Amino acid sequence: MTLKFWSLLLFLLILCVACNDEGSDAPATIRNIDAINLKDPWRNLESHSYSFNSATARTYLKSKGLIDLQPHVLYDVSVHHITYQTNYKGSLITASGAIAIPIGKTSPSILVYHHGTMFYKNDAPSVQTRNTYWGMELTASAGYITFLPDYIGYGASADILHPYHLYRPTVDACIDMILSGKHFLEEKNIAFNDTGIFLAGFSEGGYAAFATQKEIETHASLNIKLKASAPGAGAYDVGYQFSITTDHDFYPGPGYMGLALSAYNEYYMHKPLSYYFNPPYAEQMMDLVSGKYMEEYVNTRLPNRLSLLIEPNFLKGYKTDPNNVFSLYLEENNLNNFIVKTPTRFIHGIDDTTVPFPVAKKAYEDLIRCGTNPEILKIDAFEGGHDEIIYLDLMLDWFNLFSE
Q1: From first to last of its 404 residues, what are the pLDDT tens digits of the chain?
Q2: Which residues contact 223 (CB under 8 A, 6 or more apart)?
Q3: Where is the domain boundary, 332, 352, 378?
Q4: Which of 332, 361, 377 is the last residue of a domain?
Q5: What's the domain range around 278?
Q6: Is residue 298 part of a domain?
């Protein structure tokens, strides 16, 4: 789940030299006309997608009044795409992602930025035919080598329905991206600080970041060191998120509900979509979540009253049956059941209506009851809603406390 920040989309249009027109299907690789002027040492690599200029970024941010972000823009950036192997339902598949490298930074740390909900598949970080902003340009310009996994269902694996808020396919894709990204850096002789990785992400990315953290912290054999984590506005307790969302008839993002139920059905239940959705939406749903359409279009094609969207018997069974199968599947993907070991901040707007603040608060309380030290895990609540701009500023301030 994410909010499209049009000011920052324009920001990226300014940053990306020789950018495509909005909606163009031309490849992102043409956006590198200024790479030589930027003295990008990696511009000749086959993986190179584009480069951008930090001076232009600072000027633009100032002109738009986004002065809180301006101090973070320090370095020009070289952006690359990679493919790698990961597991999905017991089979090896090819996945993909992007890597953004700060030009001129000595041995930068790695920051993994997990993007928010995406509907239009050409917005994938490794594709970006619309110059979509996903956060990596800012974090890389702040001095972090930024890994941005596409996730399964986008980029090289776009033929698969994205397994939305599903733990196992999320962590497999993200952890294999970390391992493959580090191999890429080593193979290309790109120096990096290997004393610990930072994990970040907003909305679905907040869930993905914390899921990745759980997998790493509960499986020491992965041998991945973490330094700090800052999940933002994530549905860490997916069961509670679904429960409190369906306690009300109005929901501002019906596309999220459509994608979530379709993804869980595809991964687990394999029922006709009329089991979950009322007509005519059951018949339309697979087309709407196919990746052909942008989020705004999907939301306009679905009602924001859940009583019109969701099949009443399905919802009644979920609400009244303690052994409801769908409820058990949600529980399987919760992230509120381990001892957090890495310094972590849940960053969340108290007025968020997409992922309500009580979701983060309940997950926090559950994790403390599991034995997590309250000095390790804290909630950084801010005045506002589902706001990725505020999140980025707070996240970078937090991570910079660990800079060496």
Answers
A1: 443 433 343 334 334 333 333 333 333 333 444 545 568 999 999 999 888 888 777 776 777 677 778 888 899 999 999 999 999 999 999 999 999 999 999 999 999 999 999 999 999 999 875 555 556 678 999 999 999 999 999 999 999 999 999 999 999 999 999 999 999 999 999 999 999 999 999 999 999 999 999 999 999 999 999 999 999 999 999 999 999 999 999 999 999 999 999 999 999 999 999 999 999 999 999 999 999 999 999 999 999 999 999 999 999 999 999 899 999 999 999 999 999 999 999 999 999 999 999 999 999 999 999 999 999 999 999 999 999 989 999 999 999 999 76
A2: none
A3: 332
A4: 332
A5: 239-332
A6: yes
DSSP 299-355: HHHS-SBHHHHB-HHHHHHHHH-TT-HHHHHHHHT---SS---S-EEEEEETT-SSS
Residues 360 and 244 reside in one and the same domain: no
230 and 250, same domain (yes or no): no
Adjacency order of strands within the sheet including 377-382: 48-52, 76-88, 91-103, 145-149, 109-114, 193-202, 226-232, 344-349, 377-382
Q: Are residues 188 and 276 in the same domain?
A: no
Does residue 1 sit within a domain? no
Instruction: Say which CATH number the domain at 186 has.
Output: 3.40.50.1820
Domain count, the chain: 2
Q: Are residues 173 and 284 in the same domain?
A: no
Check whether residue 213 and residue 278 sit in a common domain.
no
Alpha carbon separation from 348 to 48, 359, 362, 364 (Å, rounded): 34, 10, 13, 12
| H-helix or E-strand spanning residue 227 | strand 226-232
Among candidates 72, 59, 64, which has minimal Cα distance to 5? 64
